């Protein structure tokens, strides 16, 4: 019973609370100055582990890690059908880790992913002017899709 009430009174994520408040300007300022997390996949495709031996899978994952170490650029992971892709953004590293675990289970594929910490202002060019949705803390209890008006405020506050 205390567990139920503990969740009722548990403070929520401040960034999500600010997004839901409707104060887009304050949210944009907070987003841009916050340390946020995104995931990146160093491989172009997921691995179908059902056709790989444990040694083959380990070799594929090690190769992906070497590729990631050699890459100089960064490409944020997006998901969803073409034209409706979503950029997952996380307010904590724990939320990013929960997403990676949940997403891999959801799609039943092995997808090597790297979690990167960036200032929110650095993330805006990833979605600015693109048909890309942005979801804060997806696959968590606090998942929140940013409304288009809020994305426009983020883009305009960068100018």
Please give the structural blueprint.
Blueprint: H1 2-8, H2 14-21, H3 24-33, E1 35-40, H4 54-70, E2 86-89, H5 93-107, E3 114-119, H6 120-127, E4 133-136, E5 144-145, H7 148-156
Parallel strand pairs: 2-4
Antiparallel strand pairs: 1-3, 4-5
Can you walk through the features of this model?
This protein has helices spanning 2-8, 14-21, 24-33, 54-70, 93-107, 120-127, 148-156, and strands spanning 35-40, 86-89, 114-119, 133-136, 144-145. It is of the alpha+beta class and 159 residues long. The protein is 47% helix and 14% strand. Mean pLDDT is 80; it is low at 1-10. The strands form two sheets. Strands 2-4-5 form a three-stranded mixed beta sheet, with no helix packed on it. A two-stranded antiparallel sheet has the order 1-3. The chain contains seven helices and five strands; from the N terminus they run H-H-H-E-H-E-H-E-H-E-E-H. Strand 4 and strand 5 (144-145) form a beta hairpin. It has one domain (8-156). The radius of gyration is 17 Å and the shape is elongated.
* Strand order across the largest sheet: 2-4-5
User: How many beta-strand segments?
Assistant: 5
Order of helices and strands: HHHEHEHEHEEH
Unreliable stretches: 1-10
Assembly form of the protein: single chain
User: Could you say which structural class the secondary elements and strand pairing correspond to?
Assistant: alpha+beta
Largest beta-sheet details: 3 strands, mixed
Q: How many discrete domains?
A: 1
Shape call: elongated
Strand composition percent: 5-15%
